User: Fold this.
Amino acid sequence: MFNGNIISVDTPDNHSIFMDLFRNELETMLNTLLLAELTEFLSYDKYDVSGYNTGNSRNGYYERSLHTIFGNITIKIPRDRLGQFQNKLLTPYNRNFGNLEEMIIQLYQKGITTREIADIIEKMYGCYYSP
Assistant:
């Protein structure tokens, strides 16, 4: 139900709030997608019994800072024990992340769910992601 109150983004305080909100959502979405990509690569969920004694498992993560239009975000890139996992979402040594972030934000603005966004990214990169 619309109560008639409209928030203006033109004021510096509101602009800062919206930038922080988008930056936090983008960081959360990218970290979730990277974890889902590792899960797909290993073929088992975290703490799943089917992953025991497979020879490869999760091995923490390393942090990487990306410069976005919303400010710097910290991405946690997951690792596997054998060092075979290479994410397809982020290119190595690239610190600017403009095109995909703009697409994700535009999809959020249009009301598309995270599952639908994951399906779109799957079609673009050829990997299945489960948010």
Notes: The chain is about 40% helix and 15% strand. The two ends are 29 Å apart (CA to CA).
